[in-house]
Amino acid sequence: MDAQPAPRRDPVTRAAVRQLLVLGAVCVAVFAGLMAALAWASSITGGGSAVHRAIDFETRTITLVLEDEPPQLDSTRSTDAISFRILGHVMEGLIRYDASNDLVPGVAERWEIRPEGATFWLREDARWSDGRPVTAHDFVFAWRKVVDPANASEYAFILYPVRHAEAINTRTLPVEQLGVRAVSPRVLEVEFEGPVAFFDKLVAFGLYFPVREDFYESRGERYGADAVDLLYNGPFAMTRWVHGAHVRLEKNPHYWNRDTVQLNTIDMPYVTSDTTAAVNLFKDGSIASTGLGQEQLEEAMKLRWNLGRYVDGSVFYVDFNFRPERPTSNVHLRRALQLVNDSAELVNKVIALPGYQPGVSMFPGWLTGVEGPFRHEYPPPVVTPDHDKAREHLAIARQELGDIRPLVLLTDDSPIANKQAEYYQNLFQRTLGIEIRLDKQIFKQRLEKMTSGDFDMVAAGWGPDYADPLTYGDLYASWNGNNRGLYENPELDAQVRIAQSSLDPRTRMDAFGEIQRILIEDAVHLPAFERGRLFVQRPELRGVVRRTVGTDPDYTHAWLEETP
């Protein structure tokens, strides 16, 4: 999925919030021109009430910051980490991850996976948030909607292991031919296009969530746009969604496993990606947990906060646009940029945060190969910065392209993204004399511009959808809707097909090794970094699961415990 960038957006400081609240209370009539700002301040503090408490033991409520606005919550079309985090709390698929990050029964109480297909037996007590049963037909409808070309899901490729999914998505067959059927309300039968070594991992992902047809049709284009435009079958249900301001999740009384859910409410009345603002809220006792950036790390250590750290599995890189009219479609220009790229310098001198690792491959270090770490078994080709050779490639590129106009680098407007973009801007100007113009956008708009191809280069990130190298390995396949630069290489496509269809671990890993080689030798992107996460959390909040694959952070298993 598209990885959420590091924090950004205008800061919401404690002083600003308090000032606006006071002005709103005593001087509304005098300062009528401030009404819009006051409404905004009211929304981020829960409708004008006092600043929220981080933890409320009486109501079993935790208060958090939401880093960004979910673009939308239609699981058949979502692509980004923020949307999938919300969906992971309010929806449930056939299989889910537990507190130990193991795959366990979800809506399906048991299943059987064979080389030619799979059968899932749904539990009798699985319910929607209106009390009606979750049925096999709800999965049939949802999966058909994902691959229906009219739905324009960028993630349709993730259902291609299901028989006829690709043919349907490419308008060769009607959607009714998808290889999934409801044998009965509680039995779901799936046919595979070919053997699938990782289908249990796939169905835990959000694109495989159910959708109830009658509710979907009643909402039309509004489905997933607001809290009332969704039906939930997960541990929580969304009860409030003030766009750009407030999201609230409450325990779903109809969830089949509700007795294991200890929190009643996850309240997110602050929507800001500014880490300074979030840390101020944490210091004030207004939120229960927050991430840390470079600027806050020293203060957190001085205050002796307990710091948490983990690898979230995301890789970040600069992607190129391969459309013929774009100068970055020229391999010599890409090679020139590649040969001056220095991810170690970017990570160690510019980002300078614990847990971040220099990018060397599209396949991150946590992935498992045949018997050990994938990158130990398949070391990526080493690209050592070589400015002289880079200038040789640039000279050839100029012969083929003529004068190279300034290149547009699309980026998020966040602290780390800004540092990264300015580093590249300076690097390419200083070493190659290439002018870089920065196009800074909020997360949602950056995704939209990526999808439309409105960039020469884009600072992007990718988080794992499931625990298999293919979640990274097929990103540049020609049929992948998330291949926004439209890279196309028949050799790479052939290796992806092998990795998709083989059941032999060595054959699959050999294919991923070839994909890795092609991506580096063809300079398909510039590796930047693998992201580590630093965070602080109230000691009273226990059982929060941080993970590389799946909903992160996951509060489904969390509880509150008073401490001395």
How does the SSE layout of this entry go?
Elements: H1 14-26, H2 35-44, E1 55-56, E2 61-66, H3 81-90, E3 95-97, E4 103-105, E5 108-114, E6 117-122, H4 136-147, H5 165-169, E7 180-184, E8 187-191, H6 199-202, H7 213-219, E9 236-242, E10 246-251, E11 265-271, H8 275-283, E12 289-291, H9 294-302, E13 307-320, H10 331-338, H11 343-351, E14 357-358, H12 374-377, H13 387-401, E15 407-412, H14 415-432, E16 436-441, H15 443-452, E17 457-462, H16 470-473, H17 490-501, H18 505-521, E18 525-537, E19 541-542, E20 559-560
Parallel strand pairs: 2-11, 15-16, 15-17
Antiparallel strand pairs: 1-2, 3-4, 5-6, 6-8, 7-8, 9-10, 10-11, 12-18, 13-17, 13-18, 14-18, 19-20
Please describe what this structure looks like.
The protein has 564 residues and is α+β, with helices and mostly antiparallel strands. Among the domains are: 81-220, Dipeptide-binding Protein, Domain 1 (Dipeptide-binding Protein, domain 1), CATH 3.90.76; 313-532, Dipeptide-binding Protein, Domain 3 (Dipeptide-binding Protein, domain 3, Roll). The chain is 31% helix and 20% strand. The protein contains 18 helices and 20 strands. Strands 12, 13, 14, 15, 16, 17 and 18 form a 7-stranded mixed beta sheet that branches. Strands 1-2-11-10-9 form a 5-stranded mixed beta sheet, with helices on one face. A 4-stranded antiparallel beta sheet has the order 5-6-8-7, covered by helices on one side. Strand 1 (55-56) and strand 2 (61-66) form a beta hairpin. Helix 1 packs across helix 2, helix 10 (331-338) runs antiparallel to helix 13 and helix 17 packs antiparallel against helix 18 (505-521). Residues 6-50 have low confidence and may be disordered.
